[in-house]
Every structure is written in structure tokens, then in C-alpha cells.
Design goal:
By secondary structure, the chain is of the alpha+beta class. The chain is 41% helix and 22% strand. The strands form eight sheets. A seven-stranded mixed beta sheet has the order 5-8-3-2-11-14-13, with no helix packed on it. Strands 16-17-18-20-19 form a five-stranded mixed beta sheet, covered by helices on one side. A hairpin with a 4-residue loop joins strand 2 and strand 3 (37-47). The protein is globular. The N and C termini lie close together (8 Å).
């Protein structure tokens, strides 16, 4: 493969240098017009005492800006323009720079910087969006106090918002002041016509905080749950972490056109509408819990991300991994902790482990990047959270909170590093975390092997634990020893810190069954010498819900990929016992859910999508053949006209009912799905039934599509489900996807709608993986290269594992990657992903 000599070059962590100048204050004025926006900035710079540079020069980032005027201390400065920004020369140690520039939000389809979409102005500045607004030191380690003036036609844009506290809204110009120093990536501006839900929260110290959630007028009836979630977030952070909010107002704005899930801009969070709007008729149980989790996540960033932020973008997991851990704990404390853990681990194994095994594998703290947007990854977020969870496991809740307290005492108001965080944990607890840092510096998923031998003569169990890779990790390994009756007589945590360790459990009267990696205590791939019968024993007797589910998943995997090695009848007997005796219906549902095709792809050397799909479908038929009457009985016992509740028991009942329906619909029970679709009183039940009806050619399919559309056509979030369900259907192909793209409600410029159609189809393995599917998909990527390369880069990663497919599909994917890499003016976002895949 030949790559252009002017290919984008990586940025390396080792090359970090502190900024030669810092900023006291930033005053911004926005004149929002219908065809352009004029941005005026007044920035007070001063020499950074930590900088070694002495040449008096400064480079300000700026992309796609039209410079109108520039004044430095009242005079014209010595400067030069480049396509990446503004170079200043011969500077004093302290000066005030005033710049006026023009931008065009109306034509900004990248949805970075300041853009106009659906009639509203909105910003997205993380990671490098602020440089698309005005010339600035667009880096996270430069903090400033911001004052923002917004001028607009208030008849069209009655709501004008920015960070901090409102100073004046008495005229056409509204003024906001944020007293907390922040980097420019946390800047936010919104202008539009919104309805607002208002409430108030009183903090532990008595501060009254005005809470406001802004949405489009027709969505105001779907905001109460978000407000309740926000107040829960305030309360939980106070009770669990002793952290209070620090401004007089906290605002959330929900917009449909947003690349990310949400953004924690100081005091003014901007959200993708998907993570704000919810009521039982339009949101599933998972939607509700996700809304609450994301509301919490962005609020928790106020301390872990805003008050203490990142020195450079290589430290991204400093704020994201830590805050994901916090939002996971938030959900676990409020809902079913065991089910939350299973869901998080399943997602980690399915998606993050695949990332670890692919061409874009990187450490939790990367050493280089070409386009920072490509590193908002599962490794940074979810694996980063697992790394924090291990720190918590070593220290316990009390020790972890001591470390957090010291972290904020040392670094409040600063931009710091992962090392600073770990040092706080270490110093507060006198715990040596130096061996632990491998988790931050190495990519890939560690592999652990455990072999056990029972010594009957000496009444002991000898355990060999091996780390199979070249690197040594410090990790916590939770375990439990069960006797023949299924009772746990020894449980605890081992600290693993060597490539090879021998552990002996003494005074063991008979050979036990050992449950390893309970609660998924470390993000590793574990292999053991547990027999098939012992795994079934653990499914039947373990008290740790994760371990019950995990052992069941291992057996399901074997039944799909190597059925000759498994006694299916024996396992099905255990499953029947679980269904009949387990009280936790959510856990039964999780156990009955087979590993996804995507996860199965990771378990084979060569990915044959059609063979894997067929084998999985055959196992589904076997489940139905064995359990048809029990599934039907269970389903019918859970059908009823109950009021919608989000309590764990009610969520579990719906989950079990719908997994039963999933299996039954593989037989002759589509009438059940049709009845549920027509009578459902919540979206959880309705979308499950809708998925069954459109998943095959049947007498109910077309009417279901028509009825669903008529009922929900004015609800953007439900229409995303409408499109995604059809794109994922086994009866969909390229022609039907193209037809969906001609639908009156499809918009190529809306990321949610694009993901619901194109992203869902790319996961429709049987129908996507062919020449027509690849050529269609590549055309979409090349179109996004010009309009929204950030979304294009996320989608093109579908090709990352092309080398592992069967020869025909491997060749076809390679052809598409080579076509993309040869495209003129290929964006950094897409270039980085495709180049890595081809290498």
C-alpha cells in the first residue's frame, strides 16, 4: 500500500510542552445573523512562568475562520495567517489581544464548533471545536475566566445561553459570566426557541441551584424523568462522594443534531435528545436507565473533568474513565447492581475487547494520535472505568474516598495527569500503585490462565496462575470455593502481580469447585481448567450473579461453536432449574440471552458470518424445541395490563417476558407478537414485538410498519427505533436500505438518523457482508468525508477486522479500504482509521 507523502502526521505525548502564554480572562461577543456570525474576542494573555521559551512568539489555533481585524494593546501586531491558525511574533510578557472574525454556522455540517441545525445555534468544542469559532489557545491546559455576550434577534431566538451565571438579559444582547476558570473545550453557547422545565435543588451547604432543561416545544412532556435524574445526581454525588455543585444555575439543552451523547460544558450541558427525552410510551427500560446514567455522567464531570481537567488530550481517561466508573456506580446504587455489572461486562467484552484486538488498539493513555476525535473510544471510557474499579477494589470504598478527597485538595482548578490521580490514591492510602501503571501504558486485553490441583493427602488446593502475555499486570482476582453441596466456604480477593504465581488453599476437606473472577474483578480474558460439569454446577449454585451468567455464557458459546464437546441435555436441565427457581427475573433473562454474533466473531480465527449466523439460529431452534411449553407458560404468566414502573422487579418481568417472546417468535407464535404490539402500554414491549414482526416476511409486517409510523411519526427518538429495527431485519438488503434513505423522515445530516439506518445495517451481518453492501457503505463514508468526517470515522471502523474474514469477503473489504485511502482530501478522522486497518 502506498500512502501519500503528505499524509497527516501523528502527535506524540512525549512532545508535550507547556504553553508559552496563559490566559487571565476571555471576553467573547457573538453577533448571530442569518447568513453569518461575527465573533469578537478580547483575551488577556500573560507569560507562562513554567515555559522555557524566550522568543516571544505564540500560535493560536484557528480553522475555517475569516479574519476581519486584529489589535494587540491598541496596535497592529506582527502576525501571519496559516490554514491552521494565527502566528504572533515579538510579544510582551503580558498583553491584550482583540480579534474580530467571521464564521458560517449555517453551512457547518461537521457539528463541531458553532453550528446551526434544526433552526437553533449550538456549539460542540471538545476536543478541538473551539478553533472553528475564533483564534485561541485550543488546548485543555490553558484555563481562563469567560464572559460571553450574545446578540441575536430575540423574536427568533428568545433563549440565549452560555456558561456560568446570567449577568444581563435586558436588551438584545445577553451577558453570561462564568467565575470558574476553564479550558475553551468546556465553552458552550446555545441560541434558539425552546420550552423549559424548571426546578430547584438545595445543596448540603444550603446553596439554592436553579435547574433548567431546555427542549423543543413539542418535547416538553418528556423531560420530567430527566429532571428527576438530575436531582438524583446532585444528591448521590453529595452522599457518596461529598461533592457539591458550585454555581447558581445548572442548565441542560437537548438537540437532535449532535455527534456525541452529551457534553459537560460548565453549567450548560448540551445533550443529544436521545439522552434527555423519555416517557413510557416512547422510551424503553434501557432508554430510561441510559438517560439517567448520561444525565449523571455529565453532572459528575463538574468535578471529575471540569473542576479538575486534563493537562493534555492523552490524559482523556483521567476524566472519562473516572466519570464512567462514577456513573456506573450511580446506576448500580439506584437500580439492580448485579444486572448493571452483567450488562457492562457484556458490552466491554463485545466491543472493547474487539477494539483491543483490532488495528486501532491503544492504551488507556495513548502515546500518539492523528485525530483526537478518534480516541473517544471504549478503551478510554469503559476500560478506563475498569481500571478505576480495580483501584477501588484494592483500596475499598473508604480508601478510595480518601484518595478522591486528596485528589481534589491537591488539584482543584488545575489541569493534571493520570499520574497525579494515581499518586493521590497511593499517597492517601500508603499503597504502591507503581506496578499498576501497566494498565495505562499497554494496549490489548491481558490473558490469564488458571490451573488447579487438589492434593487429597495434604487436604489443600494448589492453584497456578499465569499471565500469558509479555507484560505483567497488578490485578485483583476475586474467587469463591464451593463444596459439593454448593455452599461457599472460602471467598476473597487475591492480588496478582507476577507472571507466574502459586497459591495454596489449606485445610480443604474435599475437592472444591472454584469460581474465578467473580464480579469481573479485572478486565482480562480468563481461561481455566473448569470442566463442563463444574461450569453447570456454578450456574446452579453460585451466589455471584455475574459468575452464574458468565458460566452460562461460556457454555452457550461452546454449544454454538463446538457443540460436540458439550452435553446439551445436561445444560438444558440446569437452565430449566434456573427458570423455575431463580427469583431474579432479570438474571433469568440475561442467562437465556445467547452471545451475540458480534461476540462470536471474536471467538473464531476466520470469521464466516453466514456459518456463525446459521449455527446460532440452530441453537435457538434447539432451545425452542426443549423449552417451548415452559417459555409459553412463562410468557403468559407475565402478560397483563400493569401500570408502567421502572422498579427492578417490573423491569425484570418485562425483560423475561420479552426474551420468551423472542424465542417463541422463532416458532409459530407471531400472533403473540402481533397481540403484544397492538396492546402494549410501553415502548419496551412494543418495540420488542415490532422487531419480531418486521424481522421476517409475514402477514403482520406491513401493517405493523404503517401503524408504528402513524403513531410515532412526530417523535424523532421513536423514529430512530423505527428505522434501526428495519435496518437490522433479516429481510433487509441494500435496496431496502436505499428505500429507507428516501423516506420523508430520513436526514443524512442528522447523526442519530444516520446511525439508525447505516450503522444498524452495518451490524446486519448476513445482509451487509457482500459486494453490494460494501460498495454502498463506502459511498456513504466518502460522502461523510466531506460533510461530517467524525461520524464517517466511527462508521468506517466496521472494516477494522477485514483480515479475519473468509477470503472472498476479506478481498472485497480490502478493495473498499484501498478505494477510501486513495480519495483526494481525505479527512484526518477517516484517514487514521483506514490507514491503521490497511497496515
Amino acid at each position: 500500500m502506498v500512502i501519500s507523502a503528505i499524509a497527516p502526521q501523528p502527535i506524540y505525548r512525549k512532545d508535550y510542552q507547556p504553553s508559552t502564554y496563559l490566559i487571565h480572562t476571555t471576553e467573547l461577543s457573538f453577533d448571530l445573523r442569518e447568513d453569518q456570525t461575527i465573533v469578537s474576542s478580547k483575551i488577556h494573555f500573560y507569560k507562562n512562568p513554567k515555559s522555557q521559551a524566550e522568543d516571544g512568539s505564540l500560535f493560536l489555533n484557528g480553522i475555517d475562520l475569516e479574519l476581519i481585524s486584529i489589535v494587540l494593546d491598541g496596535e497592529k501586531p506582527n502576525y501571519e495567517l496559516t490554514d491552521q491558525g494565527l502566528q504572533l511574533h515579538n510579544l510582551k510578557d503580558e498583553f491584550v489581544l482583540e480579534i474580530v472574525n467571521r464564521i458560517h454556522p449555517q453551512t457547518n455540517t461537521s457539528l463541531n464548533g458553532l453550528y446551526k441545525s434544526s433552526g437553533n445555534f449550538c456549539t460542540q468544542c471538545e476536543a478541538h471545536g473551539f478553533r472553528q469559532i475564533t483564534y485561541y489557545l485550543d488546548r485543555p491546559d490553558v484555563l481562563s475566566v469567560f464572559t460571553t455576550h450574545i446578540t441575536a434577534d430575540k423574536s427568533k431566538y428568545p433563549v440565549l445561553l452560555s456558561n456560568g451565571n446570567l449577568i444581563d438579559d435586558s436588551s438584545a444582547t445577553v451577558i453570561w459570566h462564568d467565575p470558574t476558570s476553564k479550558p475553551c473545550y468546556l465553552f458552550a453557547l446555545v441560541a434558539g426557541d425552546f420550552s423549559v422545565l424548571e426546578d430547584e435543588y438545595t445543596t448540603l451547604s444550603g446553596r439554592k441551584v436553579a435547574l433548567k432543561i431546555y427542549v423543543e416545544h413539542h418535547n416538553i412532556n418528556k423531560t420530567q424523568f430527566a429532571m428527576t435524574s438530575l436531582k438524583r445526581s446532585f444528591s448521590w454525588d453529595e452522599s457518596r462522594f461529598n461533592l457539591e455543585y458550585d454555581l447558581d444555575i445548572y442548565m441542560i439543552v437537548a438537540v437532535d443534531d449532535f455527534n456525541m451523547g452529551a457534553m459537560e460544558n460548565k453549567g450548560l450541558n448540551i445533550f443529544n435528545s436521545t439522552y434527555v427525552l423519555a416517557n413510557p410510551k416512547t422510551a424503553t427500560d434501557k432508554d430510561f436507565i441510559n438517560v439517567e446514567a448520561v444525565i449523571g455522567h455529565e453532572y459528575f464531570h463538574n468535578w471529575t473533568g471540569n473542576r479538575v481537567t486534563c493537562k493534555d488530550w492523552f490524559q482523556l481517561s483521567l476524566k472519562e474513565g473516572l466519570t464512567v466508573f462514577r456513573d456506573q456506580e450511580f446506576t448500580s446504587d439506584l437500580h439492580a447492581r448485579s444486572i448493571k455489572r452483567i450488562e457492562d461486562v457484556n458490552a466491554l467484552r463485545t466491543f472493547q475487547f474487539a477494539e483491543d484486538a483490532g488495528p486501532m488498539a491503544h492504551p488507556v493513555r495513548p502515546e500518539s494520535y492523528i485525530e483526537m476525535n478518534n480516541f473517544y473510544t471504549l478503551t478510554i471510557y469503559e476500560k478506563g472505568a475498569e481500571v478505576i474499579r480495580m483501584i477501588h477494589s484494592f483500596l475499598g470504598e473508604e480508601g478510595f474516598q480518601k484518595g478522591m478527597k486528596l485528589y481534589f485538595e491537591r488539584h482543584d482548578g488545575e489541569a493534571v495527569t493520570i499520574d497525579d490521580f494515581v499518586a493521590s490514591m497511593s499517597d492517601a492510602n500508603d499503597f504502591n500503585f507503581k506496578p499498576f501503571m501497566t494498565w495505562y501504558t499497554q494496549s490489548g486485553t491481558p490473558k490469564i490462565n488458571i490451573q488447579s490441583t487438589y492434593d487429597e493427602k495434604n487436604k489443600c488446593l494448589n492453584v497456578e496462575i499465569k499471565q500469558l502475555g509479555e507484560h505483567t499486570y497488578l490485578l485483583p482476582l476475586n474467587y469463591a470455593l464451593l463444596n459439593i453441596q454448593g455452599d461457599i466456604f472460602n471467598e476473597g480477593m487475591l492480588s496478582i502481580n507476577q507472571q507466574y504465581q502459586m497459591v495454596t488453599f489449606e485445610n480443604i476437606e474435599a475437592e472444591p469447585v472454584v469460581s474465578w473472577l467473580r464480579d469481573f474483578s479485572a478486565p482480562v480474558e480468563l481461561s481455566t481448567d473448569l470442566s463442563f460439569e463444574q461450569k453447570i454446577f456454578l450456574v446452579s449454585h453460585e451466589k455471584d450473579a455475574f459468575s452464574v451468567w458468565d458460566n452460562a455464557q461460556q457454555i452457550w458459546l461452546s454449544l454454538i461453536l463446538t457443540p460436540e464437546k458439550v452435553n446439551q441435555s445436561m445444560f438444558f436441565d440446569a437452565i430449566e432449574k434456573v427458570i423455575n427457581t431463580t427469583k431474579d427475573k432479570s438474571l433469568i433473562s440475561e442467562i437465556l440471552t445467547l452471545p451475540s454474533e458480534r461476540l462470536l466473531h471474536q471467538k473464531v480465527d476466520i470469521i464466516d458470518v453466514f456459518d456463525i449466523h446459521q449455527k446460532r439460529e440452530e441453537l435457538i431452534k434447539s432451545v425452542l424445541d426443549r423449552f417451548e411449553s415452559l417459555l409459553l407458560k412463562t410468557y403468559q404468566s407475565l402478560v397483563g395490563d400493569k401500570n408502567y414502573e421502572l422498579m427492578p422487579e417490573a423491569v425484570g418481568e418485562r425483560s423475561l417476558k420479552n426474551i420468551c417472546l423472542y424465542y417463541l417468535n422463532k416458532g409459530q407464535y407471531l400472533q403473540l407478537a402481533n397481540n403484544q404490539f397492538e396492546t402494549a402500554n410501553c415502548m419496551t414491549d412494543q418495540i420488542t414485538a415490532f422487531s419480531a414482526l418486521v424481522g421476517s416476511d409475514n402477514q403482520y409486517s406491513e401493517k405493523a410498519k404503517l401503524d408504528f409510523y402513524k403513531t410515532f411519526k412526530d417523535d424523532a427518538q421513536v423514529m430512530d427505533k423505527f428505522f434501526a429495527t428495519q435496518s437490522s431485519s433479516l429481510v433487509s438488503n441494500v435496496d431496502s436500505i436505499k428505500a429507507l434513505m428516501q423516506h420523508e423522515l430520513f436526514s443524512f445530516n442528522n447523526p442519530n438518523r444516520l446511525r439508525s439506518v447505516i450503522g444498524s445495517f452495518a451490524q446486519n451481518y448476513v445482509n451487509f457482508h457482500n459486494r453490494a453492501g460494501y460498495e454502498f457503505f463506502t459511498d456513504i463514508i466518502l460522502k461523510l468525508n466531506k460533510s461530517n468526517p467524525q461520524i464517517g470515522a466511527r462508521l468506517v471502523s466496521v472494516y477494522n477486522h477485514w483480515k479475519r474474514f473468509t477470503p472472498e469477503l476479506k478481498k472485497l473489504q480490502q478493495q473498499q479500504l484501498e478505494k477510501i485511502i486513495k480519495t483526494d482530501e481525505l479527512s484526518n478522522d477517516i484517514f487514521e482509521i483506514v490507514q491503521a486497518a490497511l497496515k
